[in-house]
Amino acid sequence: MNKPTITPYKRHAVMCVGKSCGENMPLLKSLKDKVMKAGLTESDGNAVRVNRAGCLGVCQQGPIMVVHPEGLWYCNLTEEKLDRIVEEHFKQGNPVKEFAFYDAS
User: How far apart are CA 40 and CA 10, in angstroms?
Assistant: First the structure.
């Protein structure tokens, strides 16, 4: 049996787009665009995979996003916050702790 393949990635960002978080599909699309424009979709060891979740189980201060492997949870996401997260966390490896509410690392 042939197994599926996937492009390797360094981080996995999962954003809630459920009803409690305001159904933020436009913000999710924006995050995907920002990641692409930052060049973080290529298989160069820094790639970031972005996916949506219907609900992450934290229904306050959404939209919420969890980033693995760090296990860092962000809340109250906006376009401006995503800009900093992409630049500082995804590109430079420095999580934006002031936007986070939980850090499993």
Answer: 9
